[in-house]
């Protein structure tokens, strides 16, 4: 049907996006901002985790958040309620943030003095992987309630990321999820990715590596500052 | 940038898809097949639920499954291990099934004698809603571990469906999910959608409406048979 036109246009869209992402990255670097792109399936706990991370990082870094959602401002409201500087991007029918959406916001709003900018992508394990935003670091969340086969079934996003955060680990006793099986799929796809087992809220989990994740992000935050 | 071309092409792709979906639907109707399109975020439990549904329906209906995944055949293998007639579609980088993928399979494989065909879409709460496959009934799963705000945040897929299945309800004591809040969002979007609270496996849940879901699907299955 429309395959050849389709492939060419997809390529063109991705090339345009890459160029704009580069422009965003230059902007971040000039301003001394480290940008983290947080991606996951819907409901893996991105908003909750980012709020907890900012609480842990705010003595060291001035943090801000760009929230990507199809509609509404629920997550931005949650951020503001937690006294976090947050900006909403409504993607409408689009299933991911793209570099032009971020570029527009960067030109409309002031991020002066921001050290770390969290980009919370739309909940989706496929398309966000294809659209660079200008970020320095890509983090993928995988909730243990989603099943340990997800890296195998959605390989692109796990291949491209710098860290995988296994979230909601307090649910491990109640779901069929093998940390070892998930890690083994990840190792095949992306042996260099850091992996953290995390519970973001107050629920107990003996091997909670939240503090290690904070330290890792802090290190990344410092390494990209000018 | 490429917005106008983009919108026109998206429209053309969706129109082409709708036309092919119509062709699939005619094919299903000629063969006396009722097609259910099961959609959800990754890891909401589509495969597990479909296996359990087919066990419950198989005395009444000859069932088959088309599995949509980016890569691999993990779910098709799970189906075959449960003695279910299953066919894999690998979508590659695509984040949803489309009508042409289904049409191709319908022409390659025989679905003779099938009464009910389950189409298990790629795990994604955004794009599958835009691509009709020729199905008679759309079912969206929402795992309670994903949070009760998902219908509000991903409205298109919940607006277009005939039923919503709240899955993994055995996790309710361990997660922050209000059935009432989820139902209230759904009611605003789609007051006619049937809603079922379900645990698909052997875990206990006092208000398990799995049997009601089986009865509802069975009714749909009969109503579209010639």
Write a brief structural summary:
2 copies of one chain form a homodimer. Chain A is α/β, with parallel strands linked by helices.
Structural overview:
The structure is a homodimer of 226-residue chains. The first copy, chain A, is built from eight helices and seven strands, in the order αβαβαβαββααβαβα. The first copy, chain A, is α/β, with parallel strands linked by helices and 226 residues long. The first copy, chain A, has a single domain, classed as 3-Layer(aba) Sandwich (Rossmann fold). Chain A has a seven-stranded parallel beta sheet with strand order 3-2-4-1-5-6-7, with helices on both faces. In chain A, α7 links the parallel β6 and β7. In chain A, α1 packs parallel to α4. The longest helix of chain A has 29 residues. The termini of chain A are far apart. At the A-B interface, α1 and α5 of A face α1 and α5 of B.
Give the helix/strand class of chain A: alpha/beta
What is the average per-residue confidence, as pLDDT of chain A, rounded to a whole number? Answer: 94
CATH superfamily heading of chain A = P-loop containing nucleotide triphosphate hydrolases
Choose one word for the global shape of chain A: globular
Helix content of chain A: 40-55%
């Amino acid at each position: 049907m429309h395959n050849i036109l389709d492939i060419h246009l997809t390529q063109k869209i991705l090339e345009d996006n890459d160029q704009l992402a580069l422009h965003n990255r230059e902007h971040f670097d000039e301003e001394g901002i480290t940008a983290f792109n947080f991606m996951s399936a819907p409901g893996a706990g991105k908003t909750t985790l980012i709020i907890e991370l900012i609480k842990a990082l705010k003595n060291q870094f001035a943090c801000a958040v760009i929230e990507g959602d199809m509609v509404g401002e629920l997550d931005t409201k949650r951020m503001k309620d937690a006294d976090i500087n947050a900006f909403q991007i409504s993607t409408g029918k689009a299933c991911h943030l793209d570099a032009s959406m971020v570029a527009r916001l960067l030109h409309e709003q002031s991020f002066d003095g921001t050290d770390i900018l969290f980009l919370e992508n739309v909940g989706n394990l496929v398309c966000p992987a294809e659209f660079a935003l200008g970020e320095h670091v890509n983090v993928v969340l995988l909730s243990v309630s989603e099943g340990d086969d997800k890296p195998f079934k959605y390989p692109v996003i796990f291949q491209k990321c710098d860290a995988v955060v296994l979230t909601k680990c307090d649910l491990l006793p109640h779901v069929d999820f093998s940390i070892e099986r998930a890690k083994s799929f990840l190792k095949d796809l992306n042996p260099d990715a850091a992996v953290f087992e995390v519970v973001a809220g107050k629920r107990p989990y003996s091997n909670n590596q939240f503090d290690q994740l904070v330290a890792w992000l802090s290190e990344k935050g410092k390494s990209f500052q000018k």
